[in-house]
Amino acid sequence: MMSPHKTHTWLPLAVAALLLILGPQSSLAEEPIYRLCVPQIYLAECQQLLADPSEAGIRMECVAGRDRVDCLELIEQRKADVLATEPEDMYIAYHRKNEDYRVISEIRTQQDKD
């Protein structure tokens, strides 16, 4: 389980990474809504973070999973599109049947320095 301090670090960075990858969009009406999966205990923070519209024009909503592993399962079931994970979660994803997982960005914080 992540500490509340880590939530404030990885959640905004995950959204920022997605915004940078997807880039500015021309029309909000035509764009899909990307579903960001977060552990249930962080749902309120996710909703607060996404309350303001994206400057890049990307529409997102929060989806709650039981935990990060449940979020992996929600992505497999196409009930979520994006999540921020720890390295051990990517190891789990690598060994699952589904080959649709894509790492779009690696984020290192001051605590993660080598």
Automatic annotation (TrEMBL):
Superkingdom classification of source: Eukaryota
Signal peptide start and end residues: 1-29
Keywords: Signal
SUPFAM superfamilies tied to this protein: Periplasmic binding protein-like II (SSF53850)
Gene3D superfamilies reported for this sequence: Periplasmic binding protein-like II
Record-annotated Transferrin-like domain positions: 34-114
Protein name from the UniProt record: CG6186
